[in-house]
Automatic annotation (TrEMBL):
<protein>
    <recommendedName>
        <fullName>Palmitoyltransferase</fullName>
    </recommendedName>
</protein>
<feature type="transmembrane region" description="Helical">
    <location>
        <begin position="6"/>
        <end position="23"/>
    </location>
</feature>
<keyword id="KW-1133">Transmembrane helix</keyword>
<keyword id="KW-0812">Transmembrane</keyword>
<keyword id="KW-0472">Membrane</keyword>
């Protein structure tokens, strides 16, 4: 039972950290460098990550949800230059 609790806590921390990154529109690498040029706000980030019908993806990931872009080019809100 103790192993299950520890595993649950570790997976929960991993989940909430990546939910935090999703809300900010960042990758882990951008988080380390404190950059967020792709942040479009909470709803914009959800749409760009989960598709236009993001609210249905939470219920069932098998429901199709078209993406707003082509998956290669993304809208930029800040500078892409590295910070020093």
């Amino acid at each position: 039972a103790d192993t299950c609790v520890v595993g649950f806590l570790l997976v929960s921390a991993f989940f909430f950290f990546h939910l935090f990154l999703l809300c900010r529109g960042q990758t882990t690498r951008e988080w380390y460098s404190s950059r967020h040029p792709y942040s479009l706000g909470l709803l914009g980030n959800l749409r760009h990550t989960l598709g236009l019908r993001w609210y249905l993806c939470w219920l069932c990931p098998l429901i199709p949800s078209p993406m707003p872009g082509d998956g290669i080019n993304f809208q930029v809100t800040g500078s892409l230059e590295p910070t020093r």
